[in-house]
Amino acid sequence: MLPVLLSASTATFPDYADPRTASPPLFGLPPPPPPDEAPACSVTLFDATPLDNYNLIATSDYAPPGDAGGCPPGSWARVVLRWRGAVQGVQFDRYGALWLGGVELLRTTTPEPDPSGITWAVTKDVTEYAEHLKKSGMQAAVTIPNVVDDTYTGVINITAVLDFYPADDDHPPPESFPEILPVFDALAEATKEETTPWSVMSATADLQSVSGNVTSPVTNAIRGYLDLYASAHSCEEFWYSNPPNASNLTDECAGGAHRQLEVRINGQVAGIANPFPVIYTGGVNPMLWRPLTGILSFDIPAYRFDITPFLGLFNSGAEVNITLGVTNGGVSTCQSVWYLDAVMLLYKAPECLGELLEGDPTEVDDSGANDVTVTPVRVTDEEEIYVTRGKRTLTVTGSLVSKETNQVIKSKVTSSLETFNRAKFTDTASIASGRMYSKQSSSCPTTGAERTIVKEYPYKVISVETTDDNSFDLIGNVTYGRRATASLHKGGPQMHTTGEGNAMKDALVAWTNEMQANARYNRSLQNHSDVNIEYGHTGERYTLAVRSLDTTGYSGDSGDRGDRGNSGNSSNAAHNDEKTKKDKRSPRHARNPKIIPGETRHSPGDKKLMDIQGSRGVSYHLPRPLLPLYHPWRHEPSMLRRTKTKNNAECYYNHLEALNGAIKYNTTDTGSCESQFAGQWFNMDINTLRVDEMQWLGLTAC
């Protein structure tokens, strides 16, 4: 059995609090402004725009803010996308996207509403796209394929605003912004082909990749990335629980339980990645995600690929083909559809290097094990059990030569993937559990610094569906998350200095984001509004830590936020006092980060940043550019709390629990921080991060 998306026409659910998440909204360099600081100017792309048609694409003209608004291009320290949604009535979870000038800014899904209506929010940093945002004459476009009729009554209303924050001494702008290029313009292609952008982006069972041709206007790019937006739908939505084609489950979605994202440049493999198992708000059992939404379900991540070894091709001015695909090792054919879109980010070299030409031809070593094996453990009339394993290693090297100085600039990217999946199927249930692991190392073309990112996606998804003569019963249980560590070695970026020769030369950032959820829904088959059982209990935890070797860094104040920011009006008040269960797992964490108590030094801006955290008192050292990244600046009350552990570790955390549609904040869970730093460095049982979060944290190789 596959996880089931309940039919909105036959399901009756109670009201619940507005959707929330425990993970923070913003990561970025430079530091964000304090929460009480208004943006210098804002540009509204859409204002409560109704989306009530499957093929509707709403558009608006875009003009960047100028001198008259007080924030001309070049003066921005930070640009933030504010996405707000509202829906009321009966509606499925829907997918959607936002573009500006053909560049995708957000891939998203919507929550399933309750009768009285809900609102939700996404706050996303788009500062890295600032060069693109300077352009005039572009169109913004949003589409969320929606059906509104007598049964599905929910009209989705979307507001999208770009907030521009000015640079000042406390919030300097980044040194440079990359050139932004879409691999293809899905909207323009859709208009030309008289179809929808989703058709243009479709990788299907028949055509498992999409491609575009790019000619770069940049001739001196020294670093390059590709952000791949990828979301799975229909029979691919729960791909990790799909049986192989050779199974006896001919009435189920198939294609096996292994998927891999792949980028090719002029036919050569340029990057590989494991997709995160995003679960939408109608997935498995809708009661699981009310009101705590699934991890990344409102902001489906763009997977970042380092394409620096291929920059010689782009710098030449020649047309380059880029192909985006989903593979499964050739074991079986992917079923249904993935929507794929991509954006290139090209960072220019210093002017002194001049034009950068291709050196030695790019070398691709894809000879590492690229095996996917499916082993039938047990196949009977009562049950089928399969184990799937995958492994792949890719190394890409390239070089550039400065036309001005003849300097040779080398780059190397190595990616290793491993996956494991065990799936069990019976007449009434499916159980899929597994783990995806990846490690990527990349070198800086100019300094030789090396960045290593290790990610894990563990998951276990149980779905049980039964019916008898009188009732329909759906039970769902999900435990999954994301875990990551990222390190920078060999004299990485000067994240903080207190004098000559005192730059931080090593850094490690780690965080986790885990969810445990269980739910049951039982209703009458005779009268669909006669509900016997409605139960949902979900917990989400987010924890973050940083270690640096700089022991003379920035110092600030620490304190727990206490009860500030709590919210979540219960639509089911009878359960507000019910004692929620504690998470019994004991995460394994962390050697003590080198964060040393010392004298407190503030600039005026720093004091504002710290006050929001709560009571003041404890001093700590942390490299200044890293510190404000974890400042809980958001429009929703769900914020990171900070606490000081007894062994001087700096711990940022948030723990939310939801029961039957009501949300409850755990504001005293400092014990979890103590346990997370008791042993080895950040080795928890569950979780991982988004690649773009790592990029914003400054742990880039240059």
From TrEMBL:
Ranges where the record places region Disordered: 553-608
The record's listing under InterPro entries reads: PNGase_A, PNGaseA_N
Compositionally biased region (Basic and acidic residues)? 599-608
Where the record annotates domain Peptide N-acetyl-beta-D-glucosaminyl asparaginase amidase A N-terminal, the positions are 33-349
Which Pfam families does this one have?
A: PNGaseA
Show the ranges annotated as biased composition (Basic residues): 582-592
The protein in question is named Peptide N-acetyl-beta-D-glucosaminyl asparaginase amidase A N-terminal domain-containing protein
Which organism is the protein's source? Answer: Lotharella globosa
